[in-house]
Each structure stands twice: as C-alpha cells, then as structure tokens.
Write a structure and sequence with these properties.
By secondary structure, the protein is mainly alpha-helical. It has 19 helices and four strands. The chain folds into three domains: 24-115, Fumarase/aspartase (N-terminal domain) (Fumarase C, Chain B, domain 1), CATH 1.10.275; 120-205 and 233-368 and 464-481, Up-down Bundle (Fumarase C, Chain A, domain 2), CATH 1.20.200; 377-440, Ribonucleotide Reductase Protein R1, domain 1 (Orthogonal Bundle), CATH 1.10.40. The strands form two sheets. Strands 1-2 form a two-stranded antiparallel ribbon.
Length: 495
C-alpha cells in the first residue's frame, strides 16, 4: 500500500503485510486532514531539515539534496496557494504531503525522504513548532490588551469608585486601581507562555516511532534547523508525551478566565442600574426587536468563549490520562483542542481590546457611588485604632455607627457629632470623637491606603509605571522568532 500516486493509485504510509486497504469506515474515522492540514508548512520545514540530515549522513547526494529542497519549495508554494490540497483518500497531512512530493520529485527521489523518521516523531515536533509560533502571537495580543487597560487607568486619574467584595460595597478604591487589577493577571499569562516556551524548546525529531534511528542522522542539527535549542532526552517521552501541549491549553484557558472576569465587570458596569461605563457603538450591538438596546456583546462572547477554552483543556486532559507510555493513536486528539483555543483567542483578543480601548467611564457616577453603602466603615475602625482603641472594639464601634445610619436611612457622614460622642464614649473623650469626620471622605480614604500595592494615588502611579516596564520587557518574548532556518514563510517563497 505504498505505491506512488503518479499513476493515481492509493497512497498510504504503511503496508506490506496488509492484503487490503482500510475499510471505508476506518478511513473516515482515521482521517485528520480536516484539522491537521494547517501543519503543512511546518511539516515541509521538518522535511527540509530531515533531508539535510540525510545529506549529512551520505544517504542523499548533493545533487539529490538540492533537487529534494527544490521539490519541497515547490510543494510549499502549491500548498500555500491552494493549488495542492488533501484529497478524500489522504489519511492525514503527512500522507497528503508525501503524495504531493512524489508528484513533483518522482518516486525514486521522493521515496528516500521517509528513511529514518516516523509520523510519531514528526507530529510531536510539528505541534511544538506550531504552538511556539502562535504563543508569540497570543502573547503580543495579551500585551496589547494589558497596555490598553493601563492607558485607561492613566486616563482615570484620581477618579474613585466603589470597591466591592461579595458584590457588596466594601471600600472606595481608585478606578485606576480596579483596572490595574486586571492588568497583572494578563501579564502573568504572558509570563507563563514565556516560561512554557523554555520547556517545549526541545525537538523530538530523530526519535523515530519511539526508539530513535539507526541511520546516523544527527538530531541536534535537525533541532537547530527547526528552531529548537536541544533534543528531547528520551525518545519515548519525545514522541508520546503531550504534557507541554496540555500546559499550553491551561495557559490559554487561564487567559480566557482572566478576560472573562473583566468581561463580567464590564457587563455589570454597562447596565442602567450601574451606569459606570458607556461602550462605543462600533464595539456593541443592538436588539432585533428593542430599538433602545445597546448590548455588550463582545464582553458576553468573551465570557462564553472562556467556557469553551476550559472545555478544550478538560477534554485534552481526559484523553491523556488513560494512555500507556509510548505512542497511541489517541494522541491524534491533542491538536484540535489547542487549535480551537488559538483560533478563539486570536479572534477574541483584537475585538476585546478594541472594546476596552474605546469605552468611556462615567466619572461623576463612579464618584457619587464610591462612598455609599457604608463603604467608609473600615476607615472609622482604623481611625479608632490609631487613637488607641483595640481593633476588636473598634470594629464593633464602627458597626454600631453603621447600624444607626442604616436605621435612619442615612450614610455615615450624615451622623451628628453627638452620635459619635455617644458611640465612642467608653473609649474616647467627647471632644475627640467628632474628629472621626476627617476620614469620612472618599479622597481621604484612598489617600490613606498608602502601603505598597494600595489604592492611594501615589501607589497606583507606581504600579502603572511598573506595569509599563513589565509590558516592555515581555515584548522581547512576544517579538521573538521561534522558527529555524528550515521553516520558510509563504511570502519568502514568492520572491
């Protein structure tokens, strides 16, 4: 079953001991070109590197190597232009590409390329190459979102908003502080990608099916041709392990979760009840029946997509958990999950960043709500502590102030001096008690929280500067190139 297809016969990468080809049912089940064809350019890069290894080992003459590389370049041009594509008979992208190579180079030359490699080490290398390239694309997009959020934080200035825990008013915080709380998780996502790249930077090429090869091919040189700094230490591990693919899937899912958390805030802030933010017309939609509606569709879609990203991770881990050591066909399922994650993030992030960059905050509304809901109660307790009251008692006294105001339908600053004198009488002299008013303002509250990482204007300014520095440092990874000299971009072959 390994005949050349120059005469139109079936091509498979296995055969000899089989009396017939696969049944139609098996062929349909085995077929993977519908999703793995996107690895074609990486596969051809691997073929270039492998051909050069065959040349160094004396298994291809200099002339044969040149003709092989020319044929591979031509094959890639046809693939990238769409002139060559998988047919129904092709089991996977490797089968399709070998068929294409045989059509261009002929059976005698094209048939030599398979020596010393297996689809097992090929596909293990290809998914690494593809993920490393797209990790940089996603990193650049995440940094773009982080930079946009940081710009919004700078625009926010000293605007104060109600900080919440349990979705209840907790303490006033700077709007900038709230926005920056979403920047740091995104930067950690990029840091995870950069750290993950160090572990995936190892080539399985040369591992063969699982035990290595006997043809004297030098895997280190092949690794460098493909952009890897080293070779996997164990050929079985190199061909069969997908923990690094799963690790990427976790990072992608975590990025989705981080985006979803911000989405949830934007969706709430955009409601009429909150009215904290107004979305740009270009990044929101209307209703098919209610003309007045302006919907936060991008944020809602982002929230929904995060579930999809998590599902991809869960599905992949479930596939991997039951596999014995060494390659099993179940590993075909490692690709669709991360392909879907990459496609999802690369479509989602530009739209989401555009929405974040164009939304406008209602600063007056934010300021008006910042101190409501007894949000300054903690400030009263801490003021009492500064005046010698043990915190256990200070907490109770502040709570008593809240109770009085709540019963009257007032806020804390509406209480009379006599109210504070009466509540604090066992701990503070009467002339001292009314001085608590110095902390009953949002500006005073946020300014007082001046510890590292706090919400005071000074500290928020510091963290904005730190975030900008971190973004620029991480751009070094996002702008780096993981591809080796054997990989050729479609554009380079058009010259």
């Amino acid at each position: 079953m390994t005949e050349s297809t120059t005469n139109g016969e079936h091509l498979a990468l296995w055969g000899g001991r089989f009396k017939s080809g696969p049944s139609p049912e098996l062929a349909r089940l085995s077929k993977s070109t519908q999703f793995d064809w996107r690895l074609a350019d990486d596969d051809i890069a691997g073929s270039r590197a492998h051909a050069r290894a065959l040349g160094r080992a004396g298994l291809l003459t200099a002339d044969e190597l040149q003709r092989m590389e020319d044929a591979l370049d031509e094959l890639q041009r046809r693939v990238d232009s769409g002139a060559f594509a998988p047919i129904e008979d092709d089991e996977d992208e490797a089968t399709a590409l070998e068929r294409g190579l045989l059509q261009i180079a002929g059976d005698e030359l094209g048939g030599k390329l398979r020596a010393g490699r297996s689809r097992n080490d090929q596909i293990a290398a290809l998914i690494r190459m593809w993920l490393r390239r797209h990790s940089r694309v996603i990193a650049k997009m995440l940094l773009g979102l982080a930079a946009t959020l940081t710009e919004q934080a700078e625009k926010a200035g000293r605007t104060v908003m109600p900080g919440r825990t349990h979705m209840q008013h907790a303490q006033p915080v700077l709007l900038a502080h709230q926005l920056m709380a979403h920047v740091w998780p995104l930067l950690r996502d990029v840091e995870r990608l950069a750290d993950w790249d160090k572990r995936i930077d190892a080539s399985p090429y040369g591992s063969g099916a699982l035990a290595g090869n006997t043809l004297g091919l030098e895997p280190v040189a092949v690794a460098r041709e493909l952009g890897f700094s080293k070779v996997t230490a164990n050929s079985i591990d190199g061909t069969a392990s997908r923990d690094l693919v799963a690790e990427f899937a976790f990072i992608a899912a975590m990025a989705g979760v981080d985006i979803s958390r911000l989405s949830e805030e934007i969706i709430i802030w955009n409601t009429q009840e909150f009215a904290f933010v107004r979305l740009d017309d270009a990044y929101s939609t209307g209703s098919s029946i209610m003309p007045q509606k302006k919907n936060p569709d991008i944020a809602e879609l982002a929230r929904g997509k995060s579930g999809r990203l998590i599902g991809d991770l869960a599905g992949l881990l479930t596939t991997l958990k039951g596999l014995p050591t060494a390659y099993a066909r179940d590993l075909q399922e490692d690709k669709e999950a991360v392909f879907d994650q990459v496609d999802t993030l690369e479509v989602l992030l530009p739209a989401f960043t555009g929405m974040v960059g164009t939304m406008v905050f209602n600063k007056e509304r934010l300021e008006a709500e910042a101190s409501t809901g007894f949000a300054l109660a903690t400030d009263i307790a801490e003021w009492l502590v500064k005046n010698g009251v043990p915190f256990r008692h200070a907490h109770e006294l502040s709570g008593a102030c809240v109770k009085i105001a709540e019963d009257r339908g007032q806020e804390l600053w509406d209480l009379a001096d006599d109210d504070f004198i009466e509540v604090f009488k066992e701990f503070l002299p009467a002339d001292k008690a009314p001085e608590v008013r110095e902390v009953l303002s949002t500006e005073g509250s946020v300014s007082a929280r001046n510890g590292k990482g706090g919400t005071s204007p000074l500290r928020v300014r510091e963290q904005i500067v730190s975030a900008k520095t971190a973004i620029e440092q991480l751009r070094a990874f996002a702008n780096s190139v993981s591809d080796g000299p054997a990989y050729k971009t479609p554009e380079s072959l058009l010259k």
